[in-house]
Amino acid sequence: QVQLVESGGGLVQAGGSLRLSCAAAGVRVSSGTMAWYRQAPGNERDFVANIASAGRTNYADSLKGRFTISRDNAENTVYLQMNNLKPEDTAVYYCYAELLNGGATLRYWGKGTLVTVSS
Fold it and tell me: Are 24 and 2 in contact (CB under 8 A)?
């Protein structure tokens, strides 16, 4: 059974930093594409960043330079370092895993961690 457990959210002032963690169980974070999405109140869930099995990373254009995705294969954990946070970064942040299994694509979501940025 695959489980993704996010942590590291909280309340931070604008300009501050947070590092989110996504601890995976039942799947190796290096075996597929791992990603972070976020959903602000009243909005759709938006892509933040991903890291492919080979290590290539992609970011939402608006977040490049402030957010960094990484993974620790030994800890089986994916991270999202968020710097210079802004009030508009307030959202629930979700960890996502996409794995290829034969001819099928398997997708998993964590339950999310809330990030609140005060002005």
Answer: yes
